Amino acid sequence: MSDVFENKGAMAATIVVAASDSLNKGAANFTCPGADDQITIQAAIDASSAGDTLVLLPGNYLLRNCVTPKANMTISAPGAVLKLADADTSLLTANANAAQADVVVADGSKFFVGQWVAVTDDAAVTLIKGGITFYVADCTTILSIAGNTITLSQSLVNNYTTAQNGYLTSASSLIYINTTNGVTIEGCELDGNKANQSLIQSKTLPALREETRSLSCIVAYYSDNTIIDSVHAHDGELHNITIDNSDNCQITSSRIHACYFKNILGYAAEKLSITENYVYDAVGEDGIILYTGCPDSNISLNHIWNNPRSGIAVQGSDNCKIASNWISSPETGENPKAIDVNNEENIVISGNTVNAGRVGIYVDEAVNVAITGNTVVSIAPSGSTEFLVFIKGNIDMHVRITGNTIDGVNKSQGGVRVGWAGTDSLDYISIADNTIRRCAKGIWVRAQVGSHTNAFYNTLEDNATSIGDDSHLLDYSDQYSDTFEDVLAASANYIVNAQNLVNGVAALTGTQPNYPRGLDCTITEGAPGDVSDYTMTVVGTNAKGETITEVFTFADDGLIFSSDNAFDHVTSVTLADVADIGAATFVMGIDERLGLMNPIYETSDVWKITKNLVRQVVAGAQVDVDYDIYDMSVIGLAVNDDFIIWYRSNLNVIS
Predict the structure, then answer these.
(1) Could you identify which of 275, 314, 415, 444 might form a hypothetical disulfide with 439, taking C-beta atoms 3.0 to 4.6 angstroms apart as the criterion?
(2) Interacting residues of 16 by C-beta distance below 8 A, sequence separation 6+
(3) Cα–Cα distance between 266 and 506 in angstroms, integer?
(4) How far from each other are the two terminal CA atoms of the chain, in whole angstroms?
(5) For the chain, which domains are there?
(6) What local confidence, expressed as pLDDT, does residue 457 receive?
(7) Would strands 149-152 and 140-146 be described as parallel, antiparallel, or unpaired?
(8) Burial class (CB in 10 A: 0-12, 13-18, 19+), 526
């Protein structure tokens, strides 16, 4: 087919480009030679109009520099492989000083005008060996070449010396969408060929700098509405896909892996949608990361694994959703976290399946975060001490951890931790309706965490420790406590007063407990040994409004006895089988035991008690787990005393 193609009026045209090894070159408008293929592809783009479709036929395309699409263009390339050529590199033969744009190299013929390059040397202390090369970034383009003197589009910032093996090297993406809206890239494979690039020659991974965003297989820069669909991007020298200051972009249904740093990087990109991708095996850092200024973004339905710092990281980007992803994070790396949320507001983390080598979900200094319906499972070997869900910060964070299943598997990792060290002063963390099992500590809230943090209605199963010792969950909340105000004194207030011990229904005085109380009964004989038998049946209601009945007999209870239950109200007292040769009487009053509204599973479930607003020592020996009672005889109970009792058992079922 001729290199001249027809574009009828305003209708979008389709331009076809063949690789040197494509099978159907006759269908192509342009055919690549197999080297410097970016020249042919760019020529096809330049010959097109905005809105056209560029089809790359199946085959292998070797590029030494990026191609730049036009607005609203679609590059459709199923079966096409675009590979970045091995780096062009030449040593400096003269020192290159800051503020100059010229560099002198040993062999200028290796380079060409318009090529993306960087200057670097062996003084590497940051990512690209000499630091920031130019005023805005590490990379720039060649403006002109005169022999071995190369003039760059930007002036240098640092000094690069021959003594430190300063050199010029190519440094390009494969597709660079530059201030061009509405571009779609679909179907192609993009190979960044990182093993044969030169900016990270030692293949070690020094500290990252955000400025280095141009070295990716695909870069969208100030290019809104970019769509990347069904691509296979891998082995980017730094990153694989970068969306930089570009809004309303989509990355979907793609396979993205094996870059040096970030498989997908979003930077200042609003409403970024990253869905249904496979993202894995970054060498140094993250699977997906959104840096400052990516609000209203959605990361959903992705499979993400083996990224050594974060599977998904969201930093400084409000109103984002992380939902229904499958994430597996490794045990080793830069303190790896499956999900890392930092310094933002209104984040939803829901429905994710997380296999955590160390930390599963990590939230730091973020406000209004909902962590709901996730399954977080430890895959760490025994000996790991991290927590599967970790919340830290120094602000009122308003984090809700609800409806999650958290499984430590081997009781090595913790379940939910709130607070880091003594410097953390966060508050308003709610831990509710979770199932937390097989953890070293099910829930651990550090002592410095504020009083509006609570944990309730959780199921804690088979944890080495259910709730951490220095936490003070529920200290604030009357909703999860019983309040007893102006209690009646013990015994002096009789429900039955000096009634004869005779068969039948005893007369009640009309006095009833104002709160559920244990009952004491004393039978006074006319003479010792007068009473030889009786059966006393007491019917009433407990703290929960349930009908309760207790039966006392002479053989079992003698003349002085107490109820097992705490009675909120006594309905009747009935005597039968009385054998009394004298004139015995009896009284029934209330004792110092308080009936509790909440079920008690273990003695430690009574968490805190105040008497007249003064905190008391809680004694496990005073807790009756069978009848949900606390005995105030040690603390002391007098008329008009006020008590508040806090619990955890009604909130968290511990087994």
Answers:
(1) 415
(2) 1, 27, 28, 29, 30, 55, 57
(3) 80
(4) 76
(5) 89-170 (2.40.30), 480-647 (no CATH)
(6) 75
(7) antiparallel
(8) middle
